[in-house]
Amino acid sequence: MLARRIIPCLDVERGRVVKGTRFLDLVDAGDPVAVAARYEAEGADELVFLDITASHEGRAIMLDVVRRVAETVFMPFTVGGGIRTLADAGALVQAGAEKVSINSAAVRTPALVSQVADRLGSCATVVNIDPKRVVRDGREIWEVFVNGGRVPTGLEAVAWARRVEELGAGEIVLTCMDRDGTRDGYDLEITAAVSRAVGIPVVASGGAGRAEHLADAIELGGADAALAAGIFHFGECTIRDVKELFLRRGIPVRPPARRPRPAGTAMATIENTSLDQAPVPLKPTPSTRPALEIDRLFDALVIHNGSDLHLKVGQPPIIRVKGALQPLRFPPLDDETMRRLCTPLMSERQRKIFDTDGGADFAHTAVCGKEGDRKRWRFRVNLLTQQGQWGLVARKVNDSIPDFEKLFLPPAIERLCQLDQGMVLLAGVTGSGKSTTIGSMLNYINRHYRKHILTLEDPIEFVFTEDKCLINQREIGVDVKNFEIGMKHAVREDPDIILVGELRDVETFKTAIHAAETGHLVFGTIHAANAPSTVTRILDLFPQEEHAAIRSAIAFNMKGIVAQKLLRSIKPGVSRVPVVEMMFFDVLVKKYVLEEQDHLLADHIKKSHRDGMQDFTMSLKSLIDQGLIDRQDALEIAPNREALTMALKGIGGL
Q: What residues does 383 pair with on adjacent strands?
């Protein structure tokens, strides 16, 4: 678990820190710079400055306060209040703010959130949501208010939280107006509801009266951080008091000591990382090469249980944790640093591809993890150029292949693992879990049958441990020059099963379908939205005059298409689950493909659920019934929301 942050909030009115109840009856609490310096000395993790009357009074943003604070304190801080335009947000960051928090303007102009996220990054884009409990149409809801809690918007808070996440916000500060300044504790019900609804960090705010309230916000409200004002401003509780309580209750928290950075330098943060300190070289073992400088970043990715690492010039390194982007505590990368970090990753061949194509895909291995639990991890790396500068995106490959039975895949998918010949495709967008599913299917075969599995991958992701199968894994560019040569050799290497990786072009598909025609079982992946559209996606690779022949090849060799998406799970201990659509090539599917009646495929899948087929609606209903996913989350991604609603009511025969 990531360390939880303790954040003092400095409500500012006309250049002074103030505190009141629900933003009213304000009492002077000091000079912003002096108060900020005190909190830094006490070990606060971050600060938030809110100019609480700027939006209501139509005043300009508080640039002077931001500049003075940035010149004095070294800790990261967020600034909100009065931000109306992208220029306002950029000016605050330029003045020294780490993040900007948008509230009223986000409601009036939702596109502003996306604009700020695109320009400054999601990691610098915060949306402050101020809900109050109100009764609308006979039911109680949490309605969003703006202009310092003065103006109702008609928006429901949980739905608005989901919306701002979609728009690109990287964090939500949730200030419960009914509790703000009351000292009665946070509204844990709305805090928990929003925390469950989104994948980005949620900061609990409004109502803290003692240290226990902050701990409750984390443990009971599911918040990633707790924000408080009055109890800190007036000396009723210290940062140390709260951190000691967190430690006693087993809540991970960052120790107060930190190394200062130069004044005026923006520094993004993620808890428990030490990348701002001198690097500690990894000790190479006989089976590993000496560590590279960039391995410190891969190390942080593993320690924080992240899935992806993003490097971009002008931004600090960013990792994706629980689906949300989080910056590491590291200075923004310049072009020279980016090249120094990335160049050693590439072999001579990969560098030639990168220079020629403007991008390269390859695998990287590094020893990573916490002290006492360090081991070799693999990463799928894409090195790219954008606007003339280098960038990198790396996906962590799980160190073990999950069991087929533990992925919550539909039981009928097992039939595809028992085939002797033909083609099976996994369809979905990037990051939909195709590689994990196909890896678990091959490992199922490995555990149950004595066969020869041959993989051609660029790069190799999962490394299999042989059980009953003989497994050879060949990496393009390392073990064989290219895919065409690899497949030419493959048919002479006596495989029963061939994994061809992603079907990206005409030659790849032709070679793969030829292998299926000659008695092999071929697995592959393809980018497509659902099972029926996969047929169209394949045909799009070929000129019109070849479509009849390709339809015939698909109809007589394809055995099944599995399309999937990933959705966050609400079951403890389960992070995400696949939403799966399955289409088996029975007599009618073959007929529809041959006769160019692709529009009938979706309806046939619905009618064939007794034969193991299912569409996304059926899958979503099943996952809801199993208590694996949230009903509202399911409705939001459902291809046909009305059909899912009817199915959940028992209408429609699903």
A: 360, 392
